[in-house]
Design brief:
By secondary structure, the chain is mainly β. It has a six-stranded antiparallel beta sheet. It has a five-stranded mixed beta sheet with strand order 1-9-3-6-5. The protein has a four-stranded mixed beta sheet with strand order 2-8-7-4, with no helix packed on it. It starts with a helix and ends in a 7-residue tail after the last strand.
Length: 232
């Protein structure tokens, strides 16, 4: 009985001091749905390490942080994630993580709050949604939709992700699809070469068009913004 009371007293002292023991940390990972390129903020407690777990099928190839002396970052044994620990108090840092699939951009932020998650699992919600739509589509159906975009034409050139934020357009193709030439189409169907660039695994266009054409030789496909449901 005396030992139980003593343990409760020690636990109360730890809680009052704002330093909960590791056993109080929530073991369940927080799922972070990644979509568009751009820095994602990760808060790391100064008293705990953060385990960052990649989506299924991805492996760490390399990473870089702009202030390496303030952080201890290691690749886990299976190369399926990183373990991040604070070494010394410092301002936020930028970290780039490249996998066999894409490049992630993060802002690492130190916090004295020990209640922040210590396990974060990355999940590509867009790929999950697109996969569900793909499985539901019929083999002979030549129409599809991704996040408000309608895809028509040759399926071999269909991107896996097409998104825009109202100012920029982000397009990603599967690894086994060569990057096609990308054109914008006006209302008369006339083609205009777009000014795009690669940012991580995304082909990024600094504006939003209503219609985009993808072409390799004589093979082509088209993405139309504000997709409507196919007629039955």
């Amino acid at each position: 009985m005396i030992r139980v009371r003593l343990a409760l007293v020690v636990l109360a002292i730890l809680l009052d001091a704002g330093q909960p023991p590791e056993l109080l940390a929530t073991p369940d990972p927080v799922v972070l749905h990644w979509s568009l390129p751009g820095p994602t903020r990760l808060e790391i407690s100064v008293d705990k390490e953060l385990a960052l777990i990649l989506p299924t099928g991805e492996r760490v190839e390399r990473f870089n942080v702009d202030t390496p002396g303030n952080w201890q970052i290691t690749v886990n044994d299976t190369a399926k994630g990183l373990v991040i620990r604070v070494l010394r108090l410092a301002p936020d840092a930028a970290m780039t993580l490249t996998t066999n699939v894409r490049t992630y951009n993060f802002i690492l932020a130190m916090t004295p709050d020990a209640r922040v998650p210590n396990v974060v699992r990355l999940a590509d919600q867009q790929r999950q949604d697109d996969g569900k739509r793909s499985r539901k589509s019929k083999d002979g159906d030549q129409n599809g939709a991704i996040s408000g975009w309608k895809l028509i034409g040759n399926r071999e050139l269909w991107p896996s992700i097409v998104r825009d934020d109202g100012a920029k357009t982000f397009i990603e193709w599967p690894n086994d699809v060569p990057l096609p030439a990308v054109f914008a189409l006006d209302r008369l169907g006339r083609e205009e070469m777009v000014n795009g660039y690669m940012r991580g695994s995304f082909f990024t266009i600094d504006r939003v068009y209503d219609r985009l054409m993808f072409r390799i030789d004589k093979t082509s496909a088209e993405a139309q913004r504000k997709a409507t449901r196919p007629r039955k």
